[in-house]
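Ligand: iron/sulfur cluster. Inputs:
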Amino acid sequence: MKTKKQINEELMVIHHLFPSNQTELIRKTPFQLLVAVILSAQSTDKQVNKVTSTLFQHISYPQDILILGENTLKEQIRSLGLYITKAHNIYKMSWQLLSEKYKWVIPRRIEELTQLAWVGIKTAKVVAHQLYGEPYIAVDTHVHRVCQRLWWVKSKAPEQTSKLIEWLIYDTHKYLAHHALILFGRYHCKARNPLCEVCPLQKHCTYFGKMR
Ligand code: SF4
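Predicted complex:
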């Protein structure tokens, strides 16, 4: 395994390749972001943006979902995976946000976010990062793969990788790590045909070393 110092130096190389700190999910309001992140489970950002380009013409706040109704919502997101469950939970979550407990405000703390319907740890981290600038790193399959290939961690599942890199990445680097790692995994260190020939991390990469 590599040292914390090596890992954080390699992270900065990745950050220089992908300096954006913004999600690719298109939205205008915090509630739209929350809905888009929920919709992105098992769907690509591109698929979600296609659906929300129409949906968000009518949906900006939780009450808009209640006016739209669960069945219409279901129809509008039909092209996405798990659309029945997603529609049900977005509807339920909208009621929750309008309750006395939340008072229309999307919470900042992970503990409160994860009490909303469908919001798991990964979704909560993405939302807290994007809305409140919290230094969380949400580990999806892309980030998990990158961490394994670069031999930052050795783990079987994203959840385990998440716990390990929270400890390995310096606090000062956590905020920028989130998108840098997601985009690096999505567009550069891809599952199939990674761009190894032009990768600045070649000589640090276990996967590349084995492939030669
Ligand atoms: Fe990924 Fe290839 Fe770069 Fe290694 S050398 S980090 S496998 S793109």
